[in-house]
Each structure stands twice: as C-alpha cells, then as structure tokens.
Amino acid sequence: MATIALVDDDRNILTSVSMALEAEGFEVRAYS
Length: 32
Known about the structure:
The protein has one helix spanning 11-23, and strands at 3-7, 27-31.
C-alpha cells in the first residue's frame, strides 16, 4: 500500500483530501 504525505495549513483541506485518498486505499499522513 502506498503512503501519501499531505501538507497544508488548512485543516479542512487536509481532512477532506485524506478521507478521499483513504477511501481509495491509500495510507495518508497529514501535516499542517
């Protein structure tokens, strides 16, 4: 499984993109 690192200062963007990627089977690490 691929791991994706997301970096953004907007917590709402991190949450929504993380949820979408996790639904597709990716492991997501979110950083703000």
